[in-house]
Amino acid sequence: MIRIFDTESISIDEILDREIKSSGVEEIVSGIISDVRANGDKALKAYSKKFDKANLESLEVSEAEIEEAFAAVDDKFISIIKQAKENIENFHKRQVRNDFVINDTQGVILGQRVIPIEKVGLYVPGGTAPLPSTVLMTAIPAKIAGVAEIVMTTPPNAQGKVNPVILAAAKIAGVGRIFKVGGAQAVAALAYGTESVPAVDKIVGPGNAFVAEAKKQVFGKVAIDMIAGPSDILVVADGTCSARVVAADMLSQAEHDKLATAVLVTDSRELAQAVSEEIERQLAVLPREEIARVSIENNGKIIIAESIDEAVGIANKLAPEHLEICVDNPFDYLGKVKNAGSVFLGKNCPEPLGDYFAGPNHTLPTNGTARFSSPLSVDDFVKKTAFTYYTADALNKVCDDIAYFAEKECLSAHARSVVARKQKD
Q1: Over 70: is that where the pLDDT of 36 sits?
Q2: CB atoms within 10 A of CB 71
Q3: Where are the alpha helices (DSSP H) in 319-367?
Q4: Which of 321, 324, 351, 362 is catalytic?
Q5: Is the pLDDT of residue 318 over 80?
Q6: How far apart are alpha carbons 27 and 213 in whole angstroms?
Q7: What are the DSSP calls for 93-161, one per residue?
Q8: What's the pLDDT tens digit per position in 331-365?
Q9: What is the pLDDT of residue 336?
């Protein structure tokens, strides 16, 4: 049974406290990375046999396998993937940044170039819940940014095959190369390269605790998007909401992972009790009940606040990955939201709209990191380079000031580098 709290009897910090323990993961991942660096494809095939029960002759997915998978997916789903792709493209195209040049001081030209990252690796989970949506959400902004080489890794099944819907989404999204590798070993391969898997410059995409730890350990060798933790959702709802709908929204995230968190904050004690009862009814018929029940019982919470304003304040403290504002006037509260990965406004906007179809990215900051980080975007697939040009006259006008500044930092060579240009050989 989900727990119900009252803000009058318990502090917000106690309500929102959640400690995620991953005993032994760091050491295990370190060993896997070292093995892949030393043994390349041999290590990857050994891990596929150990973890996926697959004996792989080749790690790369062939064109024939992609075409076979595409043909196996029903036409309706192909049509839905294509429509989702269009929606995601339309949203992310508006994130594109342009170069700029500043030339408003005589003899001085300043500017910034926006340059695509050359090689990017996409990690796509493919276990009990294969995620073709992740293919779209990572590949499409990379393509829009102009990334030249997009490489995808995803685990195979015991027959050495990749889930057809993942391959179909990859074909539609325009992914270049696909490898049958999952887990921490996939991250290691993308970071350091093997005989088959090319090394990339940045790795993006969600995964389990081992994938997250591997991304953390290879950061610095390559860039990463974020250290993603278990999924979470916070629903702000008033007393006019349907308990059935609110419970369904909470369970939509609880079924992801036993460590996922689903929270309701409401100003209605009646809704709180009704949602608690409704969650139990829906859990009983949920296909992924075992996972969702552990999530709800360990991490799920219903919080009774004095007002919707207070509820939004609680949301800002939690900084949820997904925030639903289920009221009739949601735009009255949007400006008050300071910390959230993605916000879903009104009673007709369930979080799965964002997971699959609406357009904004579903790769979001988790575990409270929305306080300082953002959803995956086109910006994640570019880098920025500044440039500076001064004529001799323009430099002479500021030469002494720069040298003076450098001397204040006790960096005389810096000063002399500037002054040397005033002196004749």
Answers
A1: yes
A2: 10
A3: 331-334, 352-356
A4: 321
A5: yes
A6: 10
A7: GGG----EEEEEETTEEEEEEEEE-SEEEEE---SSS--HHHHHHHHHHHHHHT-SEEEEE----TTS-
A8: 999 999 999 999 999 999 999 999 999 999 999 99
A9: 98
Say which of 322, 324, 351, 362 is annotated catalytic.
Answer: 322
| H or E element that contains 385 | strand 382-390
Unique residue bearing structure tokens 């929204």 = 249
Q: How confident is the model at residue 228 (pLDDT cuts 50, 70, 90)?
A: confident
pLDDT tens column, 114-131: 999 999 999 999 866 788
pLDDT above 90 coverage of the chain, percent: 89
Copy the structure tokens of residue 331: 């735009």
Task: Let me know if 27 is a catalytic residue.
Answer: no
Give the DSSP H/E element, type plus range, for residue 342: strand 342-345
Give CA–CA dist 337/328, Å, rounded: 16
The residue ranges of DSSP E strands in 221-341, in sequence order, are 223-224, 232-237, 261-266, 301-304, 322-326
C-alpha distances out from residue 96 to 114, 152, 181, 243, 378, Å: 9, 23, 31, 40, 6
Residue 26 falls in the annotated catalytic set: no
Please count the other Cβ atoms lying within 10 Å of the Cβ belonging to residue 182.
28
Mean pLDDT check: name the lowest of 75-79, 185-189, 227-231.
227-231
Q: Which of 292, 349, 348, 302 has its CA nearest to residue 322?
A: 349
CA nearest to 322, candidates 366, 369, 279: 366
Report the SS3 class of residue 365: coil
Buried b (16+ CB within 10 A) or exposed e, 343-363: bbbebebbbbbbbbbbbbbbb
